[in-house]
């Protein structure tokens, strides 16, 4: 990409954008967010069969299309712009990145083709009571048993957890040297000892669940490796940042459009400098955030293709992007409501749907304060 | 010297109330009986004129009288909702017949009121109302829509601002009416907000009827009369918060009052949350252990500096007022400060909650209270006049800066409005 997208990438964006506009108007978003599963299985199928989005950045050997992270970022931006309701982020980002970064060849070959086709919906179960997505904070212990490992404990804020077929669960094992090391484990939704319960999310367009494990037998993906666990979360952060940029853009456009329509005192409110300046500041903030998200997507694109010894630059950019976009998204959402005035605070106006996504995404996979700190650490400061 | 005279007057009034309460207050009264007694004695609204259920006492006696009621544990007249705004407006601009018909039932709680001012097309620009009142066969026919009408669903009467002349400049073509809410031409629909509550209503008028004697003030004086209502609204803004307080007295009369409150306080349940609940911050920081996090400490300190300095600024304004000095700029700044505080508090609550802020509902932090804060704070910088309007007022009226050029001074008919084509 290097500061601009290729013509092919722009064409690809147009196709995805058209699909999202057609399949995910806010009327549809509002309908789906009131359902338990939160998505429409037909549209999910179309998305996979017509556009092959589930397969997009899974390597061809595992049944994917082998595109890179930049293409994935394009898809996510368009999804975020339209609040597309589907388990895409859970399955094709969180779970897929965890698997790609840690699983053995045999495991990838076994699992990824079904995820690529959209037949199997997977998600990540990592966060515990301490509400963290970092390897060092995982406290669930995986006990070696016959046929794998036994998991006990709770995971919460599991996206699409009620309807996923497969869970990638973070737990830790003793690495022999008396220290614990995090790893991912594979659990099927019908595993015995697994119970799931819906959680009431602030953002109804992204469904959440709490999972309870009571001696659930699981298969370990690859080897315990906390660094790789963190790395796959970093990849997901970059994906999330790009999705969030799409939401920022929606809010900005919506505010600017409304400011030019709404009249008070015999003129459009957009003719008041107070409103113009708010819009200009919003644009500045959104563009800065966009640059961060694109820059990070490119870094991951390369990191995913060429195994490198030192991931610190990629990790730095991932945290930089998540921090930058988190702040921009919530501020843009606040400003968009403000420009709409009272109507922006009502349920019938669409702004709150994005506001809630912004608030939820701000802390999902770690909030801006954490990521600013991780950025400094990755820079070696 | 001066003060001594005032003090002795206050003491005399206090003694009178005390005696009267001793003789009359009893928990065995029904709420209505008791309020009728209050109305007849003048002690329910002692600062109202003698002719209208009061004792004509100066406004500063109110606190002293209230103190005696509190000491005796006695209930007062009905206050909930916007009934007192209606009363104040009718006392100032109403006819004898209006006062006769409405005031007593306002105080006894038999009638409830709502305020029909804001419209979909006129928010910041309240005088741009387009709900129309047309005189036909000797009666006013009302058509149009109001928005944000609190308590419209249990109001008997509404204070209505409607346009009676489209050829005059906008402020001059408005008239003020009392509208009977219980009639076929009035439809009330609840309005749901982003935090899930439905505190307000939209009210639609389809040939609703108003008899000519229910015009308040002169034809075309609607804006002037509305200013009276709004002035009282601003003055009593602090009072709104007290509605949440429920007396915990025992006896049937208290039960009756609690039931009344339950209805009228319902729309305001989330109001404390929209201000950001700064009061919860320190305890939450302690409970989460983040109180020792240097970054969080900085954020909390900054928030508290903001909220404390705003409080002192308001106190300075009040002190000046009590000393009879002109209010400084402090008065206008409070609303704007409140928006800053609410937003900052929302950010700190997010920091303290971490990923828990992704949840709402009864299983989330403080049974959903934190989520309610995050989803209610955006109202603060809009309700009661937006931040931008406050800044205009501060710049133009306090700092004396030049006014914005106006595009809406001609006949209202020609003023661009609605959505730009
Ligand atoms: C929670 C809540 C409670 C409410 N309660 C009541 C109530 O009880 N009674 C009642 O009557 N109303 C109530 N309102 C309505 C409220 O008073 C209006 O929403 C508010 O005045 C703004 O008007 P509006 O919504 O029409 O926005 P608009 O006036 O359309 O404003 C849209 C945007 O334009 C900006 N703008 C407008 N004019 C200017 C200007 N001259 N210069 C710069 N910027 C400008 C505004 O600041 C805002 O950002 C309530 C609103 C809310 C959200």
What does this structure look like?
The mean pLDDT of chain A is 96. Chain A folds into 3 domains: 111 residues, Butyryl-Coa Dehydrogenase, subunit A, domain 1 (Orthogonal Bundle); 103 residues, Beta Barrel (Butyryl-CoA Dehydrogenase, subunit A, domain 2); 152 residues, Butyryl-CoA Dehydrogenase, subunit A, domain 3 (Up-down Bundle), CATH 1.20.140. In chain A, a hairpin with a 2-residue loop joins strand 2 and strand 3. In chain A, 52% of the residues lie in helices and 16% in strands. The longest helix of chain A is centred in the middle third of the chain and has 36 residues. Chain A is of the alpha+beta class and 381 residues long. In chain A, the strands form 2 sheets. In chain A, strands 1, 2, 3, 4, 5, 6 and 7 form a 7-stranded mixed beta sheet that branches. A two-stranded antiparallel ribbon of chain A has the order 8-9. In chain B, helix 1 packs parallel to helix 3, helix 4 packs across helix 6 and helix 10 packs parallel to helix 12. Chain B is 45% helix and 12% strand. In chain B, strand 2 and strand 3 form a beta hairpin. Chain B has 421 residues and is of the alpha+beta class. Chain B has a 4-stranded mixed beta sheet. Chain B has 3 domains: 76 residues, no CATH class; 139 residues, Beta Barrel (Butyryl-CoA Dehydrogenase, subunit A, domain 2), CATH 2.40.110; 145 residues, Up-down Bundle (Butyryl-CoA Dehydrogenase, subunit A, domain 3), CATH 1.20.140. The chains are: A alpha+beta (381), B alpha+beta (421). At the A-B interface, strand 8, strand 9, helix 9 and helix 10 of A face helix 12, helix 13 and helix 14 of B. Flavin-adenine dinucleotide sits at the interface of chains B and A.
């Amino acid at each position: 990409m290097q500061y601009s997208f290729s013509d092919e990438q722009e064409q690809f964006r147009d196709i995805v954008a058209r699909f999202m506009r057609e399949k995910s108007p806010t009327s549809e978003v509002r309908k789906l967010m009131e359902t338990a599963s939160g998505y429409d299985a037909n549209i999910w199928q179309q998305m996979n069969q017509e556009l092959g989005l589930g397969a997009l950045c899974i390597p061809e050997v595992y049944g994917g299309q082998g595109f890179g992270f930049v293409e994935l970022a394009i898809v996510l931006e368009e999804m975020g712009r339209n609040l597309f309701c589907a388990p895409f982020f859970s399955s094709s980002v969180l779970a897929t990145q965890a698997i790609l970064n840690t699983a053995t060849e045999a495991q990838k070959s076994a699992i990824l083709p079904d995820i690529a086709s959209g037949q199997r919906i997977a998600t990540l179960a990592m966060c515990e009571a301490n509400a963290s997505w970092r390897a060092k904070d995982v406290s669930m212990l995986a006990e070696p048993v016959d046929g794998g490992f036994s998991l006990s404990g709770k995971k919460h804020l599991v996206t699409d957890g009620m309807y996923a077929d497969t869970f990638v669960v973070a737990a830790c094992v003793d690495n022999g040297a008396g220290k614990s090391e995090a790893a991912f484990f594979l659990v099927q939704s019908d595993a015995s000892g697994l119970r799931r319960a819906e959680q009431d999310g602030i953002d109804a367009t992204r469904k959440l669940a709490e999972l309870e494990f009571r001696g659930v037998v699981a298969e370990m993906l690859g080897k315990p490796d906390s660094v790789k666990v963190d790395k796959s979360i970093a990849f997901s952060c970059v994906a999330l940042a790009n999705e969030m940029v799409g939401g920022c853009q929606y809010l900005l456009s919506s505010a600017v459009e409304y400011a030019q329509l709404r009249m008070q005192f015999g003129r459009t409110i957009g003719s008041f400098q107070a409103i113009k300046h708010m819009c200009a500041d919003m644009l500045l903030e959104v563009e800065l955030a966009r640059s961060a998200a694109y820059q990070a997507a490119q870094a991951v694109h390369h990191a995913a293709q060429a195994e490198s010894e030192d991931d610190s630059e990629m990790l730095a950019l991932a945290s930089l992007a998540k921090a930058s976009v988190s702040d921009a998204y919530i501020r843009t959402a606040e400003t968009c409501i403000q420009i709409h005035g009272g109507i922006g605070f009502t349920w019938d106006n669409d702004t709150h749907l994005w506001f809630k996504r912004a608030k939820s995404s701000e802390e999902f996979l770690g909030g801006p304060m954490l990521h600013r700190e991780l950025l400094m650490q990755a820079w070696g400061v | 010297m001066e003060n001594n005279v005032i003090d002795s007057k206050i003491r005399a009034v206090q003694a009178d109330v005390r005696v009267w309460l001793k003789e009359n207050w009893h928990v065995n009264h029904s709420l209505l009986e008791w309020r009728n007694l209050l109305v007849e004695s003048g002690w329910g609204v002692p600062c109202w004129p003698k002719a209208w259920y009061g004792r004509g006492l100066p406004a500063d006696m109110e606190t002293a009288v209230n103190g005696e009621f509190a000491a005796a544990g006695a209930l007062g007249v009905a206050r909930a909702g916007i009934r007192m705004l209606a009363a104040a407006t009718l006392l100032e601009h109403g006819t004898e017949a209006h006062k006769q018909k409405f005031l007593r039932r306002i105080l006894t709680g038999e009638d409830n009121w709502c305020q029909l001012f804001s419209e979909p097309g006129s928010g910041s620009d309240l005088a741009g109302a387009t709900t129309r009142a047309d005189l036909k066969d000797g009666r006013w026919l009302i058509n149009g829509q109001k928005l944000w009408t609190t308590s419209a669903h249990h109001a008997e009467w509404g204070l209505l601002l409607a346009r009676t002349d489209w050829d005059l400049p906008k402020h001059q073509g408005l008239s003020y009416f009392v509208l009977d809410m219980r009639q076929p031409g009035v439809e009330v629909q609840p309005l749901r907000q982003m935090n899930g509550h439905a505190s307000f209503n939209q009210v639609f008028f389809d040939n609703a009827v108003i008899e000519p004697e229910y015009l308040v003030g002169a034809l075309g004086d609607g804006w002037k009369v509305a200013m009276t209502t709004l002035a009282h609204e601003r003055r009593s803004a602090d009072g709104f918060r007290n509605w949440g307080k429920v007396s915990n007295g025992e006896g049937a009369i208290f039960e009756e009052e609690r039931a009344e409150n339950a209805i009228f306080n319902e729309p305001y349940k989330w109001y404390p949350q929209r201000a950001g609940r700064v009061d919860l911050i320190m305890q939450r920081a302690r409970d989460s252990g983040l109180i020792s996090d240097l970054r969080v400490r900085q954020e909390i300190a900054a928030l508290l500096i903001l909220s404390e300095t705003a409080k002192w600024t308001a106190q300075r304004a009040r002190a000046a007022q009590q000393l009879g000095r002109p209010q400084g700029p402090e008065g206008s700044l409070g609303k704007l400060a409140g928006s800053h505080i609410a937003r900052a508090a929302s950010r700190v609550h997010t920091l303290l909650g971490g990923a828990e802020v992704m949840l709402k509902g009864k299983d989330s932090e403080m049974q959903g209270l934190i989520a309610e804060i995050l989803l209610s704070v955006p109202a603060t910088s809009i309700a009661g006049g937006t931040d931008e309007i406050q800044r205009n007022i501060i710049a133009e009226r306090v700092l004396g800066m030049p006014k914005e050029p106006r595009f809406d001074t001609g006949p209202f008919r020609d003023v661009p409005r609605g959505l730009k084509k």
